[in-house]
Amino acid sequence: MKPENPILTTLSVAAGLLFLSPVLYSVWMSFQTADAFYTGKLVFTLDNYGRAVGEFNFARYLVNSLIVSGLVTVLGITVATLAAFAFARFTFRGGDLMFGATVATLMIPSHISLIPNYLTLAKAGLLDTYAGLILPAISNGFAAFFLRQYIRGIPKALDEAAYMDGATPLTVLWRIIVPLSRPAIASMALYIFITEWNNYIWPLVAVGKQDLYTLQIGLARLYKINPGEGLVDWPLVMAASTITILPVLIGFLLVERHLVRGITMGAVK
Amino acid sequence: MSGIVLRNIRKTYPGGPTVLHDVSMEFHPGEFIVIVGPSGCGKSTLLRLIAGLERADAGEIEIAGKRANDLAPQDRDIAMIFQNYALYPHMSVRENIAFGLELRGMPRAERNRRAEEVAHMLQLDAYLERKPAALSGGQRQRVAMGRAMARNTSTFLMDEPLSNLDNALRVAMRTEIKELHRQLGATIVYVTHDQTEALSLADRVAVMKDGHLQQFDRPEAIYDRPQNRFVASFLGVPPINFIAADRLPGWQGMQGLTAGLRPDILTVHTERPARPALEARIVLSEMTGSDLLLHCDSPAGRLTVTTPRRERMLAADPLWISYDLDRTLFFDNDSGERVDLERNVHSIFNTEE
Ligand SMILES: Nc1ncnc2c1ncn2[C@@H]1O[C@H](COP(=O)(O)OP(=O)(O)OP(=O)(O)O)[C@@H](O)[C@H]1O
Ligand SMILES: [Mg+2]
């Protein structure tokens, strides 16, 4: 690390505070009572969290979000890694076409596939199920594309050495490619997780049962079920919001150290 | 122990030129084969074909008597040392060496013991827990050797395994490899640029050029009876001298030949000798230890001669260079092929002069 430059430090702290200010403000607000807040006084309470979790069912939504985003991440990263390995390392009939199609999906706005997905799942009887929430999100063209580029940067001689050592293609993937792609895979997993966590439209379309609501749906509903026309219970909404962002924040902190770039080289002279 | 047969192998990389033209060779079980040739002549490609990492466009590869063209690398029971090492960067030296054993289901304790044994042989004991990134080039090269040696396979393919070592270590490793070959009785196919390595290690040497096999024979035969000018010039240090045959003093033989004179068949005289000799002047002299390497200009062209170190040699001007007629090689000017004149070589010279 370079010696600290006081001007740079001040500027970064200022910028950090600026970006964080809405979040900090909402967290601050979530600990106040509504009455006090609207009259400009300060009264601290944990009530908002209690109400969000109990009365408004956010505990259930949190579990749903964790199940859905967790499974989408695990399944999605698995599918993307397998596809990326195939695209990066094997030439097979239609391979280029399939890769082209994968890249092309990046250009299709998700709203266009909304209706076809809905109809498909309706036919399969998967609306209002976890599977209905999870399945459409598993295929992630961007992750497959990104990982393929990354894997192409790993010297192919390593695969070949492993084959000479007696490895099968899946062994090569699991023992050589995956460990060397860990930073990329961690980044993509985080990306998939956050995208799915923040997904609003699809859960809204695919799920009607309140038991299957994710946090995003629950949060949106909070405005409507709030009593008092035009007078939203903001501290309650902010408590719910805080519950919604917290897991992502924790997840990021857990994964962050894996995001460090650069494979330890020294494999090839 | 298994032999390898290559029959009319042709290989063209997609969108590239043909790298191997109709190469046919047979390696007997337990033989030490060395492949030499200039950079880009297709040596690595040939090894990769035997390993199963590339597919031949035409021809047949047989391993242990069975057609192997369609066999996957992991099914060929061949160990390979790559030109660029290809060590697993995320594994320690120990894991690198033991990986192949692990994949073959050897229990952990046993493969650890084997890895340590191999590491000891290669003087890598101190580095067992290091990652490749923390090793020097020579150390990496030894790990690559160790990875191949750990498995007791019947065939080793080595692509310039010693190219990055310092001289002392190279000589030591050369002995080690020779010893390994003697112990295991494995077939070794060894690619190198270094002709000392080629001549000293090989049971048989294959010389390649531009994807064509030039000659495949015992080292003595390659050195003493090279098939053509290319083979003659590729092996031998300092390199062979070529001069037009009719510039040899006393030459009365046929036209259109080039004489090949290895520096060690030339003798330097300070006085004009009785035998036919070329008059020459020293252009440059190099000390090589016990010997002197003299670069001389003669009417027939530039000649390089090795001679024992004697000061008066350097002062002589002009000096005289005679040659051993029996060991002089002759090549056809047009085809470059060696021409056998042995039977009548003396009759075409007027030794009286
Ligand atoms: N994957 C590839 N695609 C296209 N051309 C290739 C490929 N690999 C090698 N070549 C070409 O094939 C020729 C032979 O290459 P090869 O690596 O076999 O040479 P080499 O004899 O091992 O050379 P060196 O002594 O420099 O290692 C070269 O001209 C090279 O450019
Ligand atoms: Mg090579």
User: Architecture of chain A, CATH level 2?
Assistant: Orthogonal Bundle
Low-confidence sequence ranges of chain B? none
Indicate the structural class of chain A.
mainly alpha
* CATH architectural category of the largest domain in chain B: 3-Layer(aba) Sandwich
The largest inter-chain interface, given as chain pair and residues per side, is: A-B, 24 and 31 residues
Tell me the name of the CATH homologous superfamily of chain A.
Answer: MetI-like
Please indicate the count of domains of chain A.
1
* Structure annotation, total helices of chain A: 14
Provide the list of bound ligands, each named once: adenosine-5'-triphosphate, magnesium ion
Count of helical stretches of chain B: 9
Cα end-to-end separation of chain B: 59 Å
Describe this structure in words.
The complex is a heterodimer of chains A (269) and B (353). Chain A has 269 residues and is mainly alpha-helical. Chain A has helices spanning 6-30, 34-38, 47-53, 58-89, 95-104, 114-123, 130-138, 141-152, 156-164, 169-180, 182-197, 201-206, 215-225, 234-255. Chain A contains 14 helices and no strands. The radius of gyration of chain A is 23 Å and the shape is globular. Chain B has 353 residues and is α+β, with helices and mostly antiparallel strands. In chain B, helix 2 (93-103) crosses helix 3 and helix 3 packs across helix 4 (137-150). In chain B, a hairpin with a 2-residue loop joins strand 15 (291-298) and strand 16. At the A-B interface, helix 9 and helix 10 of A face strand 6, helix 2 and helix 4 of B. The structure holds adenosine-5'-triphosphate (ATP) and magnesium ion. Residues 43-44, 83, 159 of chain B line the site of magnesium ion.
